[in-house]
Design brief:
Length: 422
């Protein structure tokens, strides 16, 4: 019996590793966050930790388990686990992504250092080591600029600095870790998601963001829509993603999630890339649109198992993520009777509103009675939906329709008002 050590910072419903590996002769040894432990509790080897992202007992236990079970592979799909998994592989001499590669895909300055001057345009940038650096950068490049952590995901901690007042606010309360400053790039944002197996790109597809990655700051939704091969941006984005992968120390097996802008003057500009699947509902959308489970296929590649990847059979589908507002959630549409209800549909005191018939999958992360404090990052949401349609235009309209339906059937109250405790 073979074993794989899995850093599992995801709910079981999203990553059922034992089901994926059933019949393969490979058993997962799970290291997970305390909040996800219950979902994996039926498995024989599960170790859960509070404060998972920063708890160094995670690494200590992972090393012990890897040696105890003589694991042959290490798998990690969450941004917080990319480097710790790479370090473990390197320490044990296991195949897969090692530390230098992981850092290049996680540290946005190291990433851009390796891409600057290459085939894809990179915005002006600098590691933000002091206020003096910020002032010098603004003096050279002018406003607006963007300040963001070098190693977070989902636009967490990112800020657009449009004037001196914004800069003062940023400097008065800086991000607790290392940040970078870069020139603001206007334009439409896209992402390209795919899979590398055996050192080859075996799946790649570009998508357009509806709204943007900072929409959660305004309690607004963000959505993802595939481009058709006929779209004039399709080939440009695929070529750019391949070029970035070729420039970076890309591991032989990895999913990837790359982001680019196309500016009003038609320049394609790199934003960032991660060696993991995209957050939010992106993996679910890819599964519905192409019949491919990127996380499962990535796990198989990491474990040296035969791929189940067939020829993609495309059908239009999009992903919608709706963040929580600031207040107490009094009512949430949780009807599971419609055709779009799936295993991920949540529970709670819902409105009973019937799901729009275009919804194919639902993930709800909260329930009535909970208090929220607005959106935290673009990949974390209160409600996630996969939506389909006959064409991409239909899907885009349906995404708007579902967002409106959700808003109409959800009720909030201020946290300090009467009406019960949160």
């Amino acid at each position: 019996m073979r074993h794989v050590l899995v850093f599992a910072k995801t709910p079981y419903a999203k990553t059922p590793y034992d089901r994926w590996l059933a019949g393969s002769g490979t058993v997962p040894v799970i290291v997970t966050a305390a909040e996800y432990a219950a979902g994996y509790s039926h498995l024989p080897h599960v170790h859960a930790f509070p404060a998972y992202d920063t708890n160094q007992l995670v690494e200590k236990t992972a090393l012990r388990l890897a040696r105890e079970f003589a694991v042959e592979a290490v798998f990690a799909r969450a941004e917080a686990d990319i480097v710790r998994a790479a370090q473990l592989r390197e320490l044990l001499g296991l195949p897969g992504q090692h530390t230098a590669s992981a850092v290049a895909f996680r540290d946005k300055v190291v990433m851009k250092d390796q891409l600057a001057g290459g085939p894809v345009d990179v915005p002006a940038y600098r590691r933000l080591d002091s206020a003096y650096t910020a002032l010098a950068f603004v003096a050279e490049h002018g406003y607006p600029v963007v300040v963001k952590p070098v190693s977070e995901s989902g636009s967490l901690g990112a800020a657009i600095i449009r004037d001196e007042a914004d800069l003062d606010a940023c400097l008065a309360s800086p991000w607790r870790g290392t940040s970078e400053i870069e020139a603001f790039v206007p334009g439409q944002m896209y992402h390209v998601d795919g899979l590398v197996a055996g050192g080859e790109v075996v799946f790649v597809h570009p998508f357009r963001y509806l709204n943007d990655c900072l929409s959660f700051r305004d309690d607004d939704w963000v959505a993802n829509l595939p481009l058709t091969p006929q779209d004039p941006s399709y080939d440009r984005l695929v070529k750019a993603a391949r070029a970035v992968l070729a420039e970076l120390p890309t591991p032989p097996q990895t999913a990837f999630h790359a982001e680019f802008w196309i500016t009003p003057d038609d320049r394609l500009v790199f934003c960032e890339i991660a060696s993991r699947t995209g957050g939010g509902m992106i993996s679910a959308m890819v599964r519905h649109a192409f019949g491919i489970d990127l996380d499962k296929e990535w796990l198989y590649a990491e474990c040296g198992l035969p791929s189940t990847l067939g020829a993609p059979a495309y059908r239009p589908a999009g992903a919608l993520c709706i963040p929580p507002r600031n207040g107490v959630l009094e009512r949430l549409p949780t009807d599971g009777s419609g055709p779009g209800a799936g295993a991920d549909a949540g529970a709670g005191d819902g409105s009973g509103a019937e799901l729009p018939d275009c919804v194919r999958e639902v993930t709800l992360t909260g329930a009535a009675g909970q208090e929220f404090h607005g959106g935290v990052k673009s990949g974390l949401f209160l409600a996630g939906y996969v939506v389909d349609g006959d064409t991409e235009e239909d899907v885009a309209a349906n995404l708007e329709r579902v967002a409106g339906w959700f808003s109409d059937n959800t009720r909030w109250r201020p946290a300090d008002s009467s009406g019960g405790t949160a």
